[in-house]
Every structure is written in C-alpha cells, then in structure tokens.
Amino acid sequence: MKDSTTKQADGEERLVFGPDTIEAEMRRRVRQTIEAIVKEELEAALGAGKSARVGDERSGYRHGSRERTLTTSLGPATIRMPRARIRRVDGATSEWRSETVRRYQRRTVRVDEAILGVYLAGTNTRRVKGALAPLLRGGPLSKDAVSRLVGRLREDFETWRSRDLADEDIRYVFLDGWFPKVRIGGRRERVPVLVTLGVRGNGQRVVLDLRLAGEESAASWGEVIASLVARHLRRPVLAVVDGNPGLFAALQTHWPGLAVQRCTAHKLRNLQAKAPARLREELTEEYRRMIYADTVTEVQQARTRFTKKWRLRCPAVVESLEEAGDELFTFLRFPRSQWKALRTTNALERITRSFVGGRRRSRVCPARMPCCSCCLGCSAAVK
Fold first, then answer.
1. Is residue 117 helix, strand or coil?
2. What distance in Å separates the CA atoms of residue 107 and residue 149, rounded to the nearest whole number?
3. Predicted confidence (pLDDT) per residue in 314-371, tens digit
4. Radius of gyration of the chain (CA)
5. Across-strand partners of 164?
6. Quick check: 357 and 121 in contact, CB under 8 A?
7. Residues 6+ apart with CB under 8 A from 89
8. pLDDT digits (tens, 9 = 90+) for 249-265
9. Which residues pair with 205 in a beta bridge?
10. What's the predicted TM-score (pTM) here?
C-alpha cells in the first residue's frame, strides 16, 4: 500500500490525495499518538524527560528503542518503543515495561475482541484472518495466535464458572439441559449442556452455571447443584425445571423441600405426544385455557374439567398430566404478576438461542459459553 504523504524540500510532509488518503493519514496520526503516549508514560516512570538532569528524582535512564508492530482498528502501525532501565527500591535495576503497550502485545484490545467475536460466531481459526482482512489490513495474525487468544477466554470462562455467589440475592432458579450437535471423533453427536439461570430479588436474570455433561442424569445435575452450594449460593425460593427425574432428585438431595415448578410448555409437548393427531389441536386449546386462566379458582375448575374429559377420551393424557401433579401449578402460590415468568423455562430458551454461533460450529468449544453474568430484564420484579 502506497503512503499518502510525500516529503517536500523543507522536510515537511505533503498529502497526496487519493482513495486511501483519509485512512492512511489516520494511521499515521495513530502511530504518532501511540508513541507520544508511551513517551509520556516513560517520562513519568523515570521522573524526568529526555536529557533532563534532576538528581535524585531520576529513577532510571533510557537506552535506545526498538520497533514494534501494533495492529489497531485502523490496521497495523509500526512504532518505536523506547527502552529504559528503572532503579528499584533495593537499588537494583530492571527493564522498564510499558502498561500501555504491554510486552509481546501485537494487537489492541478492540482488535482482540473482534477476533473473538468472529471466532465465537462460528468461524474457525484458519478463516479468522480472511474474515477480518479489512480490519487487519495485512497485520500479522496466525492460527496459533487465535488459539492462544481463545485459550485465554477459556481461562476467563473457568474463572467465571467458579466465582463466589455469596453476594447474589437469588430468589428463583431455572434449570434445563440444552442439546447442541457437536463433532466428536469425526461424528456429529448431541451433547447436553446444563444451564442454570438465577433471578435476583430486583428481577434481574443472571447465568449462574453452564457446563458440558456426558448425560442429563441425577449425577450430572448433582454436580451442578453441589457446585452452586459450594460457591455459597443461598437456598432459592423456587426452582423452575422440566420433567427430568435426575434434576428433581438432585434438587431434593441438596435443597430438601424446595418448591418446584414443572415447565408447562414441556408438559404440553408430553401430552401432545400421548394424544392421537386428530385430537392434538383440541387438547392444546383446552390445556392452554387451563394454564392461562386469570385466577386460581378458574385454573382449578379448568383442571377438573380437563381431567374429567380427557380421562374418557384419552387416558394416557391424564396419566401424563397426573405424573406432574401439583408441581405443574406451583406458580399459583406466587403473585399473579409473576405467573407468566414462572410457568415455563422459556427464559433459558432465550439464552440458548443467543448461542447460535455455537450451533453452527461443529466441534466442542467450552470457550463459547458466556464468561460474565448477563441481565436479560424481567417482565415482573420478584417480590
């Protein structure tokens, strides 16, 4: 790429106007700005400017410079990094290290975030450079560099997953398994990802735990609940779950007597599978009329009518409904304004949809899981 400036006889640079003039001039100014910032940082560390003599206040001396290529959001910039020796408290000296442009740093934080964003969206390490070519503008980026960057993200994820939860005011928890397809040993397999979402007292939702598991069993869910307890999560008021028996057993083992709400959406799918195809539309309408009634009395009356009718028309439907029992209607114990949020595990469905990049990628990548808590908002504050 040709430079957009030329030298005049008096030594000043004159712009050569063309299609790339704006960005080339911005890159030149970025380079100058970085060098100026690093210079000020070094002067602050030394306690003196270049060639200044201030006696005991000086804490070290410069000794040349070296070139560094730093890729910014405007492309690569070659800068001159000054070098210096700093005198420590014990009288010994050590090489000065910049906090602005750290040792071995080759890209700014914004560029690294763009790389991770493209990778987590489903692009493999070999294609990241091509996808970010307009941003990198020829800047160095190897497959190993992407792997190292993703490796740091994986470490951040592990730190997030082991964080202390003692200060979290969690009232409700939503737990469910998500089954994305991943490539293992050359074959595409469905692997369960166990997701735990908490709702704070102010209505904010925060992901508490996310992990791969061999199967969605009592042992796997037991590890999840045990981890939450070990991280000092206080006993919640309610757990919203699907019908997995292993999950229910794990909850009762670690939090005996905890109120449980069975997901009404999961149960509807169970009932539809028990009914003949010609009756499913009618079944769905009456089930929803029962679940979405306006008052506790109306729900109970609709439940009685539903049970009586479908015991005659399709006994298997009623057997499936009675399997859930009163846990399908636990939401009725809570304020009416919260029924919509507590009836189903739909809050978790919204989270798993946000990992659409993970669905596209064909191999296991724990680094795709979130490394920070998120607030998804809430339709009703938790009382």
1. helix
2. 11
3. 999 999 999 999 999 999 999 999 999 999 998 887 676 655 444 444 344 444 444 3
4. 30
5. none
6. yes
7. none
8. 899 999 999 999 999 99
9. 199
10. 0.64
